[in-house]
Design a protein that fits this description.
By secondary structure, this protein is of the alpha+beta class. It has two domains: 12-143, Jelly Rolls (Sandwich), CATH 2.60.120.10; 150-224, Winged helix-like DNA-binding domain superfamily/Winged helix DNA-binding domain (Arc Repressor Mutant, subunit A, Orthogonal Bundle). Helices cover 35% and strands 23% of the residues. The strands form three sheets. The chain has a five-stranded antiparallel sheet with strand order 1-2-9-4-7. A four-stranded antiparallel sheet has the order 3-8-5-6. It has a two-stranded antiparallel sheet with strand order 10-11. A hairpin with a 5-residue loop joins strand 5 and strand 6. Helix 4 packs across helix 5 and helix 5 (180-187) packs across helix 6 (191-203). It is globular. The N and C termini lie far apart (50 Å).
Amino acid sequence: MEEIPSSSKIKSKKTHSFSAEAFLHSGGVARKVVEYRRSEKIYSQGDPATSVLYIQDGGVKLSVVNEVGKEAVVAILGPGDFFGEGCLAGQSVRMGMAIAITSTTLLVIEKKEMIRVLHAEHAFSDRFLSHMLVRNIRFEEDLVDQLFNSCEKRLARTLLLLAQYGKQKQPQKMLTNVSQGMLAEMIGTSRPRVNFFMTKFRKMGFIKYNGGLQINRSLLSVVLHD
């Protein structure tokens, strides 16, 4: 764990090219760099909520567990994503748990420091607000997806989101540690059903395995098909 002390505030350029990654690595933010191994727990449900976390590298699974121990996957996050921001809205404890799904490097920003930076650096505040709005829209879309779409459509949409469809021109490798069981939890179905549709997608050329799962843009046709 590397402790990086706070220093004098650095004025960031207020342009559309503002980089949250570069800013978080500057001397303007007091934060800790923490590395996690695959399957290592970052925090547990019920832990004190005292910081906001930023994924520099790797991937994180967010999930919740009910009173009988059943786990539901809420989201799979990757580089450039924030999580744990509930502490800024008054949450005193973590509402779910976070686990690294591959070797992961996080920047941990304490609540008071995050609030200070959000007030002091408008460009960073804009980036963080944009992130929160996108996350909120994503959760609303997930709810609609669960209520109205078939398992096949839900799986296709989830694969496209994990492959960052729309952000990359070419098919992108997904994290190799996103298992079929995890996909089943995310879309609310069984692992055999996920296996059935994954086999179907592969035969139709929508996905392929080449050192990791790759998603073809043509998979979008499953989502758009009535």
